[in-house]
Amino acid sequence: MSKALWNCSYLPLELPLAFGFMPVRMTGKTGTTPRADRFLPVNLCSYARSFLEESLLMKDESVFLLADCCDSVRRLADALEHEFPGKVFLLFLPRSQDNWEFFREELRRLQGFLSQLKGISLKDGQILEATEIVAQRRKRFREWEALKSEGLIRPLDYFHALQALNDFSRDLEPVKVSPSGGAKVFLLGTNLDDEEVWEIFQELELRIVGDDLCYGEKQGEISCGFSRGDPLEPLALSYLSRPPCPRMRNLEERFSDLLRKIEERKVDGVLLFPTKYCDSFFYDLPLLHDMLRERGIPFVVLEQDYSQRPAEQLRTRIEAMLEKK
Amino acid sequence: MNLGNFVQAKLQDGSAIRLLRSPWIYRFLSLFLRSQGPSVRFSFHLARDAYLKRKPVAFTSLFFPTELVYALGMIPFPLEVIAALISSMGMAVPFLKKAEEEWYSQDLCSFHRLGMGLALQDHLPQPDVVLSLTSLCDGSHRFFYNVSRLFKVPHFLIEVPGNGGKKDQEYIVRQLKRTRMELEALLERKIKKSDWEESLGYSNSLREELLKIYELQAHVPCPVSGEAALGNVGLIFTCAGSRWGPELISAWRKSIRENASPENYRLFWLHLRPYYPAPIFAFLKEKGVSIVGDELSNYIWPLLDPRNPELSLSSKIYANFGLGPIKNRIDNIVRLVRERKAQGVVSSSHRGCRQSTGGAFLLKEALKEKGIPCLILDGDCVDPRELNWEQMRTRIEGFLEIL
After folding, report:
1. For A283, which of B143, B159, B167 is closest by C-beta distance?
2. Partner of B40 for a Cys bridge, out of B28, B36, B134, B383, CB 3.0 to 4.6 A?
3. Under a CB-based contact definition with an 8 Å cutoff, are residues A43 and B107 in contact?
4. Residue A92 and residue A11: Cα distance in Å, rounded?
């Protein structure tokens, strides 16, 4: 089964799945990017650079489905198209659910691309079948989420659960419940794929009670309904109405939603992990800073750069933040 | 204390703003206005109307179609252009530092960081609305959103998909119509047919004047100063739709001397230039380099039709060279390089720019395949702290040698 490598959780995985592709999220890998450096300069998002590096190393036949979420991804798409012509699709992503009809038409364009690639047309009900599979996985994930927000899942177990959720070649195994008395923290950031960082969380006995990562808790909040008519309509609506990320328009909703979760879960601190050169998140930072400071919630900003290994400093800075509480 | 230091000190302590908000300063300056060129007169009117709130003020992003703003009787206040202006006066650093102190990362685009520094220090007029496009960059959306939040005014955003088909254009038209209607309701002012005719008519006249300058740029030797063309980018996009547009560009054309100096090299410029005082253009002149065009001042759009204003404005938005896959941009550059008989390309790599700098390597490789050498000049258009002149000079010298 060919893989459909994707970058953003606004991309409806139901479509590639319906066409028989295996949706797999491309994770960021820590290390140098000698192959990607030929195409993308160092001041571009380090996740996009890592995505390209991993793609250039791959030997199997895959397609690349990218949500057009930022300038870095657009340039990533250009580089991928250069190396894998005809295998790259860039999906335009409106910034608010008001424009869901346009998004539906973009999904139709994606359907056409996949149909041409596979040389098949979908039969009635195939999208609905794929929707059911994705919904089942998300339902399972939401069960873990409930345990996680109580602080009953260890950081590494949650990390592995997230990896599995976003990679359809893996089954969702039951997660181990491990009560701990460590500090309760909330993760804010784009993507956090370096296992070493999660090991540090585990060593510090942190309880990750919530997150706003691109592919984390928010994924479980996508709830796709069913329609007797155009199956793309509920897909477009449900994806655009999930809790917004820093790139989107309904940011007041985003901030109030975040604050509600942070306060409800009585966190001891917030860890902010902006990916290096992610403009959208860096514009959030001053607003998040004000929001957390006004409410006396301890926080620390820990820049995530895939070109460098997480420093020991990370541990020290988290410990220092928790001591402030 | 010299005048520059005095003005800088006044800007930093906020007293210069008090001056800009006083009607007396404009009465005083108007005594000297007649003898000034149109760009000074335009800047005077823009500052006066915005700071004295003679008209509703719209903060605008560079490519937002100002024809709509003028048709609504508003005054556009283009924050990125203001940032370039402040930088050209050598005053960028205190405002950049202010933004950085308030958690705006040094990795963000310095045009936006500087604009935010000005906003945070209360150096901008109070806007009524903030209007922006998603083209050409993503940072722009969040910058203008954060500004609108700071000033507690509505933010209207037009999203521009990159594929350029009929469906995408209709999407822009719908958003333009919705924005226009919401602005009309907010301002309690309906755009009349004559407003569109006037605004789009001025824009068409500006376009005609620009086309005459493009013709001159193709002459050998080139009589048009590349530095001036890059300096006029902000004016082109701020004046489109007002009576100042054709007047300013016509004055620019008339100022071009027909007898140009002999030239050793003809180069085409990508992206913007450093706006702070830097020796680069004096050095290029010394080496006999003519900048025979650049992507931004050579942004041309189809004639606008007042009978169908939103469709026309969507075509103007879609004429942008940087939309869609990088192939579109490369094709545009190759066409202009051939038209202008340029020997090579200089890609100004603005540090915080993901959309332009992000594609520089792909672009360089594609141009090389077409036999067009390309020099990538790392730096920053607004933040003088990023300038390494010795390194830049060596790279330019090396590039000229291979030509």
Report:
1. B143
2. B36
3. yes
4. 10
Task: Write out chain B residues lying below 8 Å of A77, CB-based.
Answer: 325
**Same domain flag for B131 and B164:** yes
In this structure, are B260 and B306 located in the same domain?
yes
Q: Is B218 in the same domain as B181? A: no
Nearest to B358 among A41, A81, A99 (CB): A41
pLDDT tens profile B335-369 = 999 999 999 999 999 999 998 888 999 999 999 99
Same domain, B174 and B42: yes
At residue A89, φ and ψ (nearest 5 deg) are -125, 130
Residue B383: which CATH number?
3.40.50.11900
- Shared domain for B238 and B207, answered yes or no, is yes
Domain of B282? 194-402
The verdict on B373 and B238 lying in the same domain is: yes
Which of B210, B363, B98 is closest to A78 using CA atoms?
A: B363
Question: Are the CB atoms for B317 and B63 separated by under 8 Å?
Answer: yes
Q: Do B302 and B396 reside in the same domain of the chain?
A: yes
Say if the Cβ atoms of B354 and A99 lie within 8 Å.
no
Q: Are A269 and A297 in contact (CB under 8 A)?
A: yes
**Residue B39 maps to which CATH number?**
3.40.50.11890
Question: Are B138 and A279 a contacting pair at CB < 8 A?
Answer: yes
Has residue B90 been placed in a domain?
Answer: yes
Q: Which position has the token pair 């830097």?
A: B278
pLDDT in tens, B198-211: 999 999 999 999 99
* Among B142, B163, B358, beta carbon nearest to A283: B142
Tell me, yes or no, whether B8 lies in a domain.
no
The predicted structure's pLDDT at residue A173 = 85
B189, B223, B244 — which closes off a domain? B189
ipTM: 0.95
Chain B CA closest to residue A42: B358
Compare all CA atoms of chain B with the CA of A247 and give the residue at the minimum distance: B142
In this structure, is the dihedral angle defined by the CA atoms of residues A252, A258, A261 and A265, taken in order, positive or negative? Answer: negative
Which residue from B105, B161, B357 is facing A41, i.e. has the nearest CB?
B357
How many domains in chain B? 2
Contacts of A193 (CB under 8 A, 6+ apart): A27, A28, A29, A47, A306
Residue B294 lies in a domain: yes
Which of chain A's residues have a Cβ under 8 Å away from the Cβ of B171? 99, 102
- B362 contacts on A by Cβ (under 8 Å): 39, 75, 78-79, 82
Closest CA of chain B from A224, distance in Å = 25
What pLDDT digit, counting tens, does each position of B216-251 carry? 999 999 999 999 999 999 999 999 999 999 999 999
Indicate yes or no: CB of A282 within 8 angstroms of CB of B104. Answer: yes
Nearest to B146 among A72, A106, A287 (CB): A287
What is chain A's pLDDT, residue by residue, as a tens digit (325 residues)? 899 999 999 999 999 999 999 999 999 999 999 999 999 999 999 999 999 999 999 987 899 999 999 999 999 999 999 999 999 999 999 999 999 999 999 999 999 999 999 999 999 899 999 999 999 999 998 888 888 888 899 999 999 999 999 999 998 888 888 888 899 999 999 989 999 999 999 999 999 999 999 989 988 888 877 777 899 999 999 999 999 999 999 899 999 999 999 999 999 999 999 999 999 999 999 999 999 999 999 999 999 999 888 878 899 999 999 887 6
Question: How much is the pTM?
Answer: 0.95
What SS3 class is residue B218? coil
Residues of chain B with pLDDT under 50: none
CB contact under 8 A, B354 and A285: no
Number of H helices, E strands in chain B: 19, 8
Verify that B112 and B213 share a domain, yes or no: no
Q: Between A and B, how many residue pairs show a Cβ–Cβ distance under 8 A?
A: 109
Picking from A75, A80, A252 by the largest number of B CB atoms within 10 A of its own CB, the best residue to mutate is A75
Q: How many CB atoms lie within 10 A of CB B300?
A: 12
At residue A114, what are phi and psi to the nearest 5 degrees? -70, -35
- pLDDT given at position B205: 98
User: In this structure, is residue B1 part of a structural domain?
Assistant: no
Nearest CA in chain A to B108: A279
